[in-house]
């Protein structure tokens, strides 16, 4: 049909006009579209329709993935128009699609190759930066801009690893640098953007130092604007340690401590001998200052903040070794903050730390909100310490929590009853079984519990 229309328009163009010049002038004034425009439109439409048979577009259309089918439909509707094609390619980039796929899309489209994968990635990064800055950039739905950025960076990383030469790490750094250096923007997203980039690429030594300087500057300008830094201040562990000690000494307020934690996370982990030192580990030093300098009326909040800080390090290169966890737990306990101290110990899978936690539990004479909550009870059950808590005031709370919060595959009342019986606690084992099976409290006598233990376990 499109071919027929093209032929018809060509005949109109080639047909000699028999109208007088006044009619021609009137037609030209009334019409905004000429036959030549119509011909160009139809020819481009035909060329675009022919690309729909390209193997790449057909593969998208026949894919079992809904998102790839969506790309096929969008391409069909784009007519290879540069604006629509650009928006589709940027959307694909924001979805974390491979750069080679985006390159194929641009190559299939009709028209001059005015768009490149590099242009597309730059536009995608610009949208992410706009969203991080509080703008209303379209990221393809209500999505976390940092997660979107991770996907874009991962796609570039994969492309670089394959040697495609489409976009380089230096390109990304150049596009992100203005945002990351903008003091008017919030510190955390700027730091996270730099961390995403730093974790994804093996940057040159110069770029790595620059990246670390950017991170440091972003934090210092938000909290210690008068303190200027340069590359020399962060290029070695000794210099970074001196800067940290200087800022730690000057810190008194919660937001200063928070930014010191950000600073430590922005830097490489300390060497082994410092990381394992109970007194020299920078995280232990920071927590110590937080707890000893903080206002007494905010003691519980500070304890929770120290716990949150330590938990934020799980699974990272900064994760605290067992001896430092034990040191921090002792520090929390010395400040009458047993609840976060127990959680810190029980978070670990280290048996020695569990033994330390059990010692603290055993020393408790009365269970209250300062030493027990639902999370601590769950952590004790996860650590399989129910049997060893039988003689403590925590035991009845553990049993009630176990029965009130069944967790199939995590805690099993019958299995735990078996452990109790093996440890010689037959009455407790039977009582737990009776309660788990819904036996009325009036029937849960000592003899009944013993009988249940011997019969069921």
Automatic annotation (TrEMBL):
GO terms for biological process: retrograde vesicle-mediated transport, Golgi to endoplasmic reticulum. Pfam families: NBAS_11th (PF22913). InterPro entries: NBAS_C. Residues 80-204 form the NBAS subunit of NRZ tethering complex C-terminal domain. Transmembrane segments: none annotated. One of its GO terms (cellular component) is Dsl1/NZR complex. It comes from the Eukaryota. This is NBAS subunit of NRZ tethering complex.
